[in-house]
Structure prediction request, 431 residues.
Amino acid sequence: MIDKLTQAWGRSPLATVDPQMAALIRREESRQETTLDLIASQSIVSRAVAEAENSVLRHKYAEGYPGKRYYAGCGNYDEIEQLTIDRAKALFGADHANVQLLSGVPANTAVYLAALKLGDPVMGMDLSQGGHLSHGSKVALSGKNYTFHSYGVRPDNGLIDYDAVQRMAGEVKPKMIVCGASAYPRKIDFSRFREIADSVGAVLLADISHIAGLVAAGVHPSPVHAGADFVTTTTHKTLLGPRSAIILSKKEHADTIDKAVFPGTQGGAHFNTVAAVGVAFLEAQGAAFKDCMQQIVTNARILAETLLGAGATLKTGGTDNHLMLVDVNTSFGISGKTAQDALETAGIVANRNTIQGDKSPFKPTGIRLGTPTVTARGMGDPEMRRIGGWVLEVLRNPNDRVLQGRIRSEVEILCRAFPLMDRYVTRGTYP
Ligand SMILES: *Cc1c(COP(=O)(O)O)cnc(C)c1O
Prediction:
C-alpha cells in the first residue's frame, strides 16, 4: 500500500491531479497571450529566468548566509547566493548586496529595522501623489512604527517639490529620507535628495523598484552613484526578473542590513528565486537588455506623444521613464475606474491611479500606463502608435461595447504577432 502511494504520489501531471486548477492556469496563459499589459509595475521574465525559478532549489532551507548556514547540505546554495550577490554589486556598482528579500515591502521593512528606532521621524513621498504604501502610509507597518512626514508634487507641474522637501527636512529633522515612487513619470534627482539628507544629517533610502532596470542600463541616473546609503528594489518590474527584491548598501551598513533581513524580518529565503534573480542580473549586463530598456522609454514617449497629440492631459506633460499618468477626468470627463474597465473590455489592461489633486483616494481620476511588458514582448514604435489610438478611441467612448469588441479583436491579432507563452515550457513541466 505504502509502496503504491509513494510510486503514485508526485508523478501524475497537474491536469490529471487537479484539472480545475490546471484549467484556470491555462485560461490565464491565454489571457496574458491575447491582451496588452500596460500595468507599469509588471513585466515578463525570460525563458532562462523561468527555468531557474522552476528548479529544485525551491525544496531546501538555507537560512543564514554563504558559509554560515543553519542547515546541512547548503554547499550549492552558498555558491548560488554568492554569484547572485556578486552580479547585483557589479550591475549597480554597490559595496554590498542582500539578495534574500521575499519582495519589495520586506526590503523596505528590513532597511527601517536596520537604520531606525521605533517612533523616529522619517520623510517619504505621499502615497496619493506617487509614493508607495511602504513609505509610511498610515495603514502600513512603516506608518505605524515610525513618525512619517509625507512630501508630494507641485500642484502646477506635477514635479517633486524639492524646495518643499528641503523646508520639511529642516522642520522635522528626519533620521531618514525615503525617495523613489510607484507612479512618477519623470527622472528623480537623487543628488538633490542626497544634499537635502546631508543638510539635516539624515540617511537616504532610494527605493528604485519601478526604475531599477532603467538605472541598471544607464537610462536613468543611479542613486548608488549619488551616494544613497541604502537602495532597495523589486526585481520583477523593469528589471525583468522573478518576484523578489534586493537591498544595496554602503559597506558600513552591510552587517546591520544582513541581520535585519535574517533573522530580523525573514526566515528562509526562496532560493529558486535567488537563482532566478542571478540569471536576470546576468541578462541585465547584456546589450539586448540595454536596448530593451532604451526601447521601454522610447515606447513610453511615443505612447505619450500619441495621447498628447489628441489633446489628452498627462501629469507633468509627458514622461522620461516607463510610465505616464493620464488625467482621464480632465481629458475625457470619466473616472479612473470607468477608464480601467472600458480598457480592460477592449483587451488593454492598465490600472487606475490617484493623481495629485484627487479629492478621495477611493475615486482616482488618473490611469497609469506603462510599457515594460509590451516592450519585452518585442513591440516598438508602430505598435505604440496603434495602442495609443485604441486607448483614445476607448476612453472617448467608454460605454461603446461594439467599439470595445472590435478593438478587442484587433488587440488579439497584434498580441499573437508578439507571442509570450512560447517562452515558457509549461507543457514540458507538466508532461
Ligand atoms: C512595487 C513597489 C514596492 C513593493 O513591492 P512588493 O513586491 O509588492 O512588496 C515597493 N516600493 C515601490 C516604490 C514599489 O513600486
About this structure: The longest strand covers residues 96-101. Confidence is low (pLDDT under 50) at residues 427-431. The pocket of pyridoxal-5'-phosphate is lined by residues 41, 103-105, 132, 134, 180-182, 207, 209-210, 234, 245 (CB under 6 Å).
